[in-house]
From TrEMBL:
<dbReference type="GO" id="GO:0006541">
    <property type="term" value="P:glutamine metabolic process"/>
</dbReference>
<feature type="domain" description="Carbamoyl-phosphate synthetase large subunit oligomerisation">
    <location>
        <begin position="142"/>
        <end position="250"/>
    </location>
</feature>
<dbReference type="InterPro" id="IPR005479">
    <property type="entry name" value="CPAse_ATP-bd"/>
</dbReference>
<keyword id="KW-0067">ATP-binding</keyword>
<dbReference type="Pfam" id="PF02786">
    <property type="entry name" value="CPSase_L_D2"/>
</dbReference>
<dbReference type="GO" id="GO:0005737">
    <property type="term" value="C:cytoplasm"/>
</dbReference>
<protein>
    <recommendedName>
        <fullName>Carbamoyl-phosphate synthetase large subunit oligomerisation domain-containing protein</fullName>
    </recommendedName>
</protein>
<dbReference type="GO" id="GO:0005524">
    <property type="term" value="F:ATP binding"/>
</dbReference>
<dbReference type="InterPro" id="IPR036897">
    <property type="entry name" value="CarbamoylP_synth_lsu_oligo_sf"/>
</dbReference>
<dbReference type="InterPro" id="IPR005480">
    <property type="entry name" value="CPSase_lsu_oligo"/>
</dbReference>
<keyword id="KW-0436">Ligase</keyword>
<dbReference type="Pfam" id="PF02787">
    <property type="entry name" value="CPSase_L_D3"/>
</dbReference>
<dbReference type="InterPro" id="IPR005483">
    <property type="entry name" value="CPSase_dom"/>
</dbReference>
<dbReference type="GO" id="GO:0004088">
    <property type="term" value="F:carbamoyl-phosphate synthase (glutamine-hydrolyzing) activity"/>
</dbReference>
<keyword id="KW-0547">Nucleotide-binding</keyword>
Length: 263
């Protein structure tokens, strides 16, 4: 997995993408070989994950931490249920009664999609029902505000691209990999230059973008109703579906099939 934010020190503090999108084959093999050496040296048996900090300009890396387990089961359960396991467990350890504890809403979300931009926008909509996707603020963003970011504020990203910030300028200010910046910029450019009311009459264009942009988002930028977008999708045979996915990258037969939902 890969953090989008180059300054993040923990996967819970940044947007994380699986599999990594920006590593070269040499970088991937380097980190893989180092991981194997670390595991063998420490004598770890079973599951393990290692978090690296990698310099993209040269072959320089640091091992931030080694976990002798995957430690993602609790995080995935939290995402799926919204149940704050760490908070609840700590309170129970202090002697509090489970019945008396109120659950906290999770702020982590996870999506599985065919492309980065689709998964990215689905995540944003899952964070808050008032978010339609990668939307910009109705104010001006400055260089100082961008360079002072300690995590990825996606709406500042959207606003800056909407204002006309270039990939190179953004890279200089944030050091976010250009691959991700190009994905963000492409979403904003399409919203600005391609969205209009005629999209619901263009089957090819609607099919190309219906999974990336929600009905609500399309209606907002095209000046039409959400119902009109929905009816157009149905007319062209574009309906939400549930599909099975391979969770082991084709390495062997997966006895426990997983599903994903296209919204």
């Amino acid at each position: 997995m890969e953090n989008i934010d180059p300054t993040a020190s923990h996967t819970d503090e940044s947007i994380v993408v699986v599999p990594s999108q920006t590593l070269s084959s040499d970088e991937f093999n380097l980190l893989r070989s180092v991981s194997i050496k670390v595991v063998c040296h420490l004598g770890i048996v079973g599951q393990c994950n290692i978090q690296f900090s990698l310099n993209p300009l040269c072959i320089e890396y640091y091992i931030i931490k080694v976990n002798a387990c995957l430690i993602r089961s609790s995080a995935l359960a939290l995402k799926a249920t919204g149940y704050s396991l760490g908070y609840i467990t700590a309170k129970l350890a202090l002697g509090m009664n489970l019945v008396d504890l109120k659950n906290l809403k999770s702020v982590e979300v996870m999506t599985i999609s065919k492309s980065f931009d689709e998964a990215f926008q689905k995540c944003l909509r899952m964070v808050d029902q008032n978010f339609t996707g990668f939307d910009s603020y109705a104010r001006t963003i400055t260089d100082n505000e961008i360079s002072a970011l300690t995590d990825v504020n996606v709406f500042i990203l959207a606003t800056a691209f909407h204002q006309g910030y270039t990939i190179e300028r953004f890279y200089q200010l944030t050091q976010i990999d250009r691959w991700f910046l190009y994905q963000f910029q492409a979403i904003i450019q399409f919203l600005v230059h391609r969205f209009n009311s005629s999209i619901i009459q263009d089957r090819a264009l609607l099919k190309q973008n219906v999974w990336v942009f929600s009905d609500k988002q399309i209606s907002k930028y095209c000046g039409i109703t959400e119902l009109e977008v929905c009816e157009s999708r149905k007319q062209f045979g574009m309906r939400p579906s549930v599909k099975m996915i391979d969770t082991v990258f084709g390495q062997w037969s997966d006895p426990i099939p997983q599903i994903k939902h296209f919204d």
